[in-house]
Amino acid sequence: MTLPAHSSKGTFHHVISALIELSPKTQMEIAAELGFSKPNIVSMFKSGATKVPIERIPALAKILEVDPAYLLRLALQEYMPKLLTLIESSCGFTITENEKEIIKELRLYSSDLDPKMNKAEQRAALKAFAEKLIGVD
User: How many CB atoms lie within 10 A of CB 100?
Assistant: First the structure.
């Protein structure tokens, strides 16, 4: 599934709402697969009226066909930013499967030399690359 564009000003419920709208599943099906008896909980997630329980995010990611690391990181950024900082400082930075593919390619094209970004033009080139990946013109 194609992920919705996400900006730093976006909120988790906006991302969830877009993903649910893209899903072929009904809100009733999504609610049932998450273990909820009433589909209005999905509407509440979409509007931000209710937070998605953290323990249900991996299941929701599977239902919506997105990487669980992506969805969990977005939720933690909004719901519990201090916990995300603690996890990443203790356990390392989490990356998605898509990000792993990018890193594999970077290693291939850099002959596995562990390149360092220390120049403004390198950062600009990386920004342009990222924008091309997500379709920003």
Answer: 12
